[in-house]
Each structure stands twice: as C-alpha cells, then as structure tokens.
Amino acid sequence: MKIVITAAGSYGDVAPYTGLGARLRAAGHDVALATHDAYAPLVRTAGLEFRRLPADPRAGRPDGGPAPEASTGGRRALMRKAAAFIRELSTGVAEATTEGTELLLLSTTTAPLGRSLAEAYGIPSLELPLHPNAPTGDFAPPVGGARSLGRWGNRAVGRLSHRVVDRLYADASRELRARLGLPPATPRTLRRRGEATGRPVLHGFSEVLVPRPKDWPSGLEVVGNWWPWHAPDAQLPSFVEDFLAAGPPPVFIGFGSMAGGEGERLSALAVAALRRAKVRGVLQSGWAGLTTGPDALATDDVLTVGEVPHALLFPHMAAVVHHCGAGTTAAGLRAAVPTVPVPVTADQPFWAARLAAVGAATAPIPFRDLAAEHAADRLADALTRATADPAHRERARGAAGRLAVEDGAGAVAEAVARLTA
Q1: Contact 21, 49 (CB under 8 A)
Q2: What is the 3-state secondary structure (H, E, C) of the chain?
Q3: How far apart are CA 12 and CA 226, in angstroms?
Q4: Statement to judge: residues 296 and 158 lie in one domain
Q5: 272 lies in which domain range?
C-alpha cells in the first residue's frame, strides 16, 4: 500500500513519524513522509521517501501557540503568523499527496488540511496526534497550560480551543477545497463529520503520563509513543563517548526548538548552574544555540553537542533539563532519568506538570523565570535535587518500565491493516 505521512513543525513534531514510517515500511508498505527540507536527511536515513512541505517551521506554531522565538507582538500578530504558515503549508500538503496515494496519515498540524485531501481522492485517512486535543473534563487543553478549570470549565475551554484552530485553518482550507474542486466546507464542519462517523484517532503518547479520559467518545485511543528512528547499530559520536567515560554521569540541558536567539544568555546560565551544583553537563545547541564556546564558559566538565538521538544519549545522564515538548518528555521518561522541567509555551507546561505528578521530575521552573536575578541558583538547586534524591530516579525507572511494554507504532500498524483490509 502507498502511504503518505504528513507532519509539520519543529523537530519534535516530525521525528516520531520517522520511526512510525519505518515500522510500516517493515510491514511491506511503500511509505513517504512529507515534511520540511530541514528534516529530509532524517526521513531518508529512516528508509522513507521524502516529500517536501514548504513553510519555515520557525515562522509560527501551527498548533495555535506562539512562534517559538516570539516574545513580543501580541496574540493577534502570532495568530496571523500561524495562519500564514498554514496557508503556505496547504499547498505543499496537496502536492505531496500524489495520484496513487492509498492512505493518508496525518499529524495534528496537517489533519485539518488532510481531511479535504482524503475526501477529494476518495481514500482513507488516520489522524495521529502527539498530544490530547479533544475536549475533556479531566484537564484543560494542553496548549492552554497545566491549570485545571474544573470539569465544566475544562470542556468549555477545550471546545473554544477547537474554534481557535478552526479559525486558523479557515482561509487555507477554503483555498485548498477550491483547488481540489470540492464544495465549500469549513474546518469545523469537516472535523464534526469525522467525529460523527467515529473515525479512529490514535494518540501517540503514553497513559503513564495521561490516562485516556473516560469522557472521550469511542474511537479516540491512547496507544503509546512512536519513537524517532535510528539505526539499530547506531552509536554515540566518539567525542561524546570519550566525555561520558571521563567522569560521573552528566546532566543534559537543552531547549529544542525553543528560545531562538537566547543562546549566549542561556549558555552562561546553564554553565553557572552546573558549576554551582558541582555536576558535569552536556548542552545541546538546539534553536537557542547553546554552546560553551571558546571563552570563559569553556570547561572540561561541559560538552556541547548538536543533534544526537535522545534514545542514545539520555540513558547516560544523571538528569535531563529541557523544555518539555511531548517527544523530549517521553524520551527522558523512557531513559529512566529524572527531569528538571523548564517549560516555555504551548503544551509544555502541561507535560511538565505531568512529569512532576508521577514523581519523575522536580517542580517545573517556568522558562520566563530563568531571566530572574537568582535564576542560576534556582536551577542549581533543582539539579541537586534531581541528581541526589533517589525518589525521582526510582519513580522515573518505574515509569520507564511501563513504557517499555507499550508499542504505539505497532498499534498504528494494526489500525492501518484494518483500514486496508
């Protein structure tokens, strides 16, 4: 079967679908992954066909949250930026779905566009979000933070979140349907059609962190994570292996696709906190550009790395400090190491709170607090608690054991087999 996976956004929005695509390819399917140019090597290395999606993933958050690097400009400016991203994206999604495609697999970002494509080509589709996005009384929408508003309030805000997303996709959806020769239909109408049919939606996160809400309708399932692909014989770079062998387990610090342009400040803060906590560190440059550099920050006890698979690196860490994107959150838990959460925006406070709730993390430090006067001391204190308190590691190990028996990619493969039977 010819399958096209569409995924857009940051690394964490795309990388998990490489592992899923590889699993489907091993099952005998012909799999293409449509995403941004920056991830072409990642896609091809996984043995998948790469199809290009336009739009700069740094330009706007397609989930309705703010652009990663944006701290000013107001909500309206951010919404305009995200809507422009989506309109550009819609062209690429249409071009990636070539004649002969037999099944569409859709991420959260591409699902509102993919519904029209599936309709136009008369093919099935399967939505595969990486975070819970259906209204529930159990919690408020993850993109709204970690604070519960009570069961009624949570559901109301969940419905409001859907309306915001519908509005973001309205122009792009209208243009796409006209291009495909389809009758007019709003994103809300298309979403409700799918809900009415009970179409399956498989969520790629673990019930270890988010148990399936009991008030979700049938068809919405939580199946477990699918993980970024890496070669079975892959190893860490030799310079990383050498650093790990030279001393006790270090602490990882990275902010992924967050904090663009703040590398100098954050690097100095990270190194200061590591030194005060008397632990070694690994800084992952990410979009922030973390680095020890050739100046006073340079030290034999801190190493800077670029893109290194978390699955290979995290198990060697004493703790991990990160922004709590869904994928990084799961990777830290899978590695059985404690987390110091530093959430920035969107769904990150939600995942940070979930980690703390299961005891695998210290109390979250909001990213904005890293600009405070005593931020290095606060981060150093959290590092000390994460590495010295055995309770955090024991809870992380327990959660990792539960994750180890889940097979999210296998659940998707089974769903694909049912759809195509």
Answers
A1: no
A2: CEEEEECCCCHHHHCHHHHHHHHHHHCCCEEEEEECHHHHHHHHHCCCEEEECCCCCCCCCCCCCCCCCCCCCHHHHHHHHHHHHHHHHHHHHHHHCCCCCCEEEECCCCHHHHHHHHHHHCCCEEECCCCCCCCCCCCCCHHHCCCCCHHHHHHHHHHHHHHHHHHHHHHHHHHHHHHHCCCCCCHHHHHHHHHHHCCCEEECCCCCCCCCCCCCCCCEEECCCCCCCCCCCCCCCHHHHHHHHCCCCCEEECCCCCCCCCHHHHHHHHHHHHHHHCCCEEEECCCCCCCCCCCCCCCCCEEEECCCCHHHHHHHCCEEEECCCHHHHHHHHHCCCCEEECCCCCCHHHHHHHHHHCCCECCCCCHHHHHCCCHHHHHHHHHHHHHHCHHHHHHHHHHHHHHHCCCHHHHHHHHHHHHHC
A3: 12
A4: no
A5: 238-404
Residue 206 and residue 267 in one domain: no
Residue 22, both tokens: 């590889």
In the chain, the number of structural domains is 2
For residue 282, the cross-strand partners are 252, 303
Q: What's the whole-model pTM score?
A: 0.91
Looking at the structure, tell me whether residues 165 and 295 fall in a common domain.
Answer: no
**Per-residue pLDDT reduced to its tens digit, 303-355:** 999 889 999 999 999 999 999 999 999 999 999 999 999 998 888 999 999 99
- For residue range 233-266, list pLDDT tens digits in order: 999 999 999 999 999 999 999 987 776 667 788 8
